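Reopening this ticket.

The earlier resolution said the output was attached, but the attachment link was broken on my side. Pasting everything inline this time so it's all in one place.
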Amino acid sequence: MPRYQRIAVDEHWRVVHAVDCALPGWLVLLPRRHLESMAELTGAEAASLGVWQVRLARALKVVTGCRKAYVAQFGEAEGFAHVHFHVVPRAEGLPAEWRGPRVFGLLGAGDRAVPAERMDELAGRLAEVLGG
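Inline output:
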């Protein structure tokens, strides 16, 4: 299994690098069980969710030097109707046309997508920072 498919994991959550995206370091935080709504989270899953989001934002700052990290959850795209959180590094130099919700235009990148080797390299560095 490529490193980017399992950056970190605990009893409730798994962290992967988003595929087919043009932004290095775009992470996806997935529950270990299938959920279609945040309302289905257990108390333990909910309690650790915020901790994970902050940990990932901090790790992205260390590894990518990003100014901040966006966090979003929709679960509406065809084939992705399950709870998952995007934790997206927002670099200082990210062009204005890709900031805020427009950053989702960097998904479905095709030939502009971050190569698997680069995702694996970032995954390894993120795992080190996260202590795994």
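Reporter confirms the inline version is readable. Helices lie at 43-64, 116-130. The chain has two helices and five strands.
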